[in-house]
Amino acid sequence: MSAPLRAVIADDQTLVRTGFRMILATDGIEVVAEATNGVEAVAAVRRTRPDVVLMDIRMPEMDGLEATRLILGGGAGGEAVPKVLILTTYDLDRYVYAALEAGASGFLLKDVSPEQLVASVRLVRSGDALLAPTITRRLIERFAQRDEARNNLHRDLGELTARELEVLQLMAGGLSNAELAEHLTLSQTTVKTHVARILGKLGLRDRVQAVVLAYETGLVAPGGGSGS
């Protein structure tokens, strides 16, 4: 029997933390710590080594964005780096994009249903980092900065094969693995292999970072088309 999924909840609102804890507990997810600010969140991750962190953005002392950078950059001091799932009240919050860029695996609105919360935590833990594609696209299209100086900071997409570039473009369009398989007439196993190779070659944690990179390098243009 596999070990239970372990989570940390970081939010300065007691009712939010309590509600999320109860929802996760009913599905067998163990909340190993709670934090009311970013400083406590980083300390909790160091102490408990969770699988997933549910991270609010706007908190006192240290916000969730800086805490995410510290946790995913190794500042939390653990060998295994947890997945960070950002919590927000707004579906088009500039800080959400910054958190994704910092390495967070996705984001949830605080009015998410219990079923969606549990499913999202489990998917993020598995490495799928499944987000609502329409929300993710809107976010990235609105806030991605695609000037040349910024693009040059990113990895060379020339490392990817033509097929991998095609898969990355479609991923950035919001297609799931099942939809990619249907579109490309491939098995889902083959699609997963392509996705894994893309992430490995570009040194990315998950498909969310891959989508961000696709927009920032101009591979995909805001509005859904291919970049020039």
Short structural summary:
The protein is of the alpha/beta class. The protein is 50% helix and 11% strand. The chain has eleven helices and five strands; from the N terminus they run βαβαβαβαβααααααα.
Structure notes:
- The protein has 2 domains: 6-131, Response regulator (Rossmann fold, 3-Layer(aba) Sandwich), CATH 3.40.50.2300; 146-216, Winged helix-like DNA-binding domain superfamily/Winged helix DNA-binding domain (Arc Repressor Mutant, subunit A), CATH 1.10.10.
- The chain is 50% helix and 11% strand.
- It has helices spanning 14-26, 38-48, 64-72, 94-102, 114-126, 133-143, 148-151, 162-172, 177-184, 188-202, 207-216, and strands at residues 6-10, 30-35, 52-56, 83-88, 106-109.
- A 5-stranded parallel β-sheet has the order 2-1-3-4-5, with helices on both faces.
- Helix 2 (38-48) runs parallel beside helix 3 (64-72), helix 3 packs parallel to helix 4 and helix 8 (162-172) packs across helix 11.
- The chain is globular.
The oligomeric state is single chain
CATH topology of the largest domain: Rossmann fold
SSE pattern: EHEHEHEHEHHHHHHH
- Enumerate the strands of the largest sheet in spatial order, edge to edge or round the barrel: 2-1-3-4-5
Q: Calculate the mean pLDDT score and round it.
A: 80
- Return the domain count: 2
Supply the CATH superfamily name of the largest domain. Response regulator
Q: How many helices in DSSP terms?
A: 11
The end-to-end span amounts to: 50 Å
> Which structural category fits the helices and strands?
alpha/beta
**Strand-residue proportion:** 5-15%
Q: What is the CATH architecture descriptor of the largest domain?
A: 3-Layer(aba) Sandwich
- pLDDT below 50 for ≥5 consecutive residues: which ranges? 146-153
Shape type: globular
C-alpha-based Rg, rounded = 17 Å
Number of strands: 5
